[in-house]
Amino acid sequence: MPAKNHLTLEQKEKLQKALKREENGEIRERILILLLLNDGKTQQKIAEFVGCSKNTVCYWCVHGNPDNLESLKDERMKGNHKKATDKYVEILLETVDQEPEDLGYEFGRWTAKRLATYLEEQTGIQLSGSQVRRILKRKKYVYLWAKYSLEFKRDKQKRKVFKNKLLEYLRIEKEEPKRLQVWFWDESGFSLRVIQRKNWCRKGTRKKIRGDRRKGRVNVMGALRYSDKKRFVEFLKTSNSKSFYEVLKIFYDEIIYEWVEEGNKREEFEKKGAKIVIILDNASFHKKAEYLEKIEAEMPNIHLEYLPEYSPDYNLIELVWHGAKEYIANRLFKSIEELESLLHQLLNEGKLIIKWERKLKNKGNAVITV
What we know:
The chain folds into three domains: 9-78, no CATH class; 86-139, no CATH class; 151-198 and 207-366, Ribonuclease H-like superfamily/Ribonuclease H (Nucleotidyltransferase, domain 5, 2-Layer Sandwich). The chain contains 14 helices and nine strands. It has helices spanning 9-21, 25-38, 43-50, 54-63, 75-78, 86-96, 112-123, 129-138, 156-175, 241-261, 269-272, 289-298, 318-328, 336-348, and strands at residues 141-143, 180-191, 200-202, 217-225, 231-236, 275-280, 302-306, 361-362, 365-366. The strands form three sheets. The protein has a five-stranded mixed beta sheet with strand order 5-4-2-6-7, sandwiched between helices. Helix 10 packs parallel to helix 12 (289-298). The radius of gyration is 32 Å and the shape is elongated. The N and C termini lie far apart (71 Å).
């Protein structure tokens, strides 16, 4: 056991300054043990004064190095023990009440992972999304999402038959991509009205965001190829039978152009080109006889395959629309042109990154990425 006044003047002053600055109560306790030991106090007296066991005093008298304050940290402190300080939690709670756009971000809502990344930049403390989620849960915050269901309107037998047929199409496409292509087709709309998404809020309350009914809407119609996730999206004024036919014609020309780029002859596409299976819903303008006859006559390689009723979960392109709407959620656009410009970047220029393996609640059910 060190003798009285074993510390040098420099060591003593260093410990006294650290005692005032240190925020961790356990380390302050260990510094005090070394200072009291230097004053000639016995280990028993120190234990009684500090309020800990004699074994604890004995341990830090031996292992505590006055020249290296890091020696006063135990393994728990060096590891991934509670890193979130009171200041960290304070900034976290202030952040969830702010819009990401106000802090310079382009996404419209906070996820636990995004909060963890932002807080690391602000505080230097690195936590995982799960740790941030637990902190918010302790502070009575919840992540709310509405639940919808269309299951009671579905025909299970039709869905089973369709799924088997779809799986067979996908099998053929995988084995013989030059023989068959499977595309998922749909329409969607994006409004100038702010889209409300989930937000962190205290239990029993819902956060209020801007929701004025601003006039203006961008309509899109497009397709997604299953094999390579290639997207084809056109902007239009409205969705009807005529626009469906016209966009399908543009789409057909794109497929033929792709065929020619591979070194084939355009006139041979009808006989040697791939058959195009298009999966689409039962909207009335998809089935107008006048235009179906034109499609059959002018685009013979196309085969329209209709989804079972109330089964948008079998349409993979729903993930594209959902991803785009998630990206622009809670954002306020000044004009239709500004909204359309961003959508063009997202849908046609590859700016929108989609996790195809994810499951999401969309129009009543998780999209089935078969």
